[in-house]
Amino acid sequence: MSDSNSNVGIIGLGIMGSAIAGHLVARGNTVIGFDTDPERCQEAKSIGVAVKGSATEVGIDSKVVLTSLPSVNALNVTVDALLLQPCESVLLELSTLPLDAKLASHAQLAEAGIELLDCPLSGTGAQAVAGDISVYASGDQVAYESCLSVVKDFSRVSYYLGALGNGTKMKFVANLLVAIHNVATAEAIVLGIEAGLDPDTLCEIAGSGAGASRVLDLRGPMMVNEQYEPASMKLDVWQKDMALIRDFSENCGVKTPLFSASAPIYDAAIALGHGQRDTAAVRSVLQNMVHSV
Asked: I need a surface site. Which of 70, 158, 169, 208 has the fewest CB within 10 A?
């Protein structure tokens, strides 16, 4: 068995997990990982990740474990696997999932000596590849500080937000802005192009003024060129995040009229067949509105 004190484990080697693994390997970490998809495992091996046969093995051989998972079911299965042979470790849960699911997992793992921190990420897959992501960390502060060197190796910035669950709350707030900015960016680009402005300079000039946003920087060129693949966030996956934000705001008793107005645009993009394409494809919906008048 390898020295678990020097290993960083990653469970979930999809778009985000594999990008994070690549940065950790490049920074000299010994990275071990697992994914249920054999193709993802092969890709991880090619960038220097020592792939294990199960999440249980990753947990045994790692003092710090990162999880980047697509669903509550995947989290539950992973927690069950880690509980098969538990050892004292810190788990950074990086996924965007319902808060109650993370709290339940924390309680289960704590009984076995595993400290789960709620640490969702802000950024697209493309940003993850560039190391341009933010970490919203919450939970036990001592445990968080013990993992800071790992966090710094794959992120641009990290924030400690206090009590367990505040990370996910912050992620929902940030994603609400992303949802609105994405549709607003598409609307502005369609207006500019229909008005006869030069598409090649539209994003650059708009981004140099008060209307600048990270979404404009990242997705504006995709919208201008109507190139929505490869996706850094698929529309089908984004619908999960939209539902989480809606439920969160309703539970808080807060009205979100702009967010609510953006939701049908995403639904329409999926109806047009863009489900596996990037969320930038909302431009097509607004473009169709112009030509249907």
From this structure: 208
Distance CA 159, CA 138 (A): 8
* Cα–Cα distance measured from residue 227 to residue 55, given in angstroms and rounded to the nearest whole number: 36
Superfamily of the domain at 169-291:
N-(1-d-carboxylethyl)-l-norvaline Dehydrogenase; domain 2 (1.10.1040.10)
Residues 117-140: tens digit of each pLDDT: 999 999 988 899 999 999 999 999
202 within 8 A of 222, measured Cβ to Cβ: no
- Backbone phi, then psi, for 41, in 5-degree steps? -65, -40
CATH topology of domain 4-163: Rossmann fold (3.40.50)
Q: Give pTM, 2 decimals.
A: 0.92
Q: What is the C-alpha separation between 143 and 106, in angstroms, rounded? A: 13
DSSP 86: -
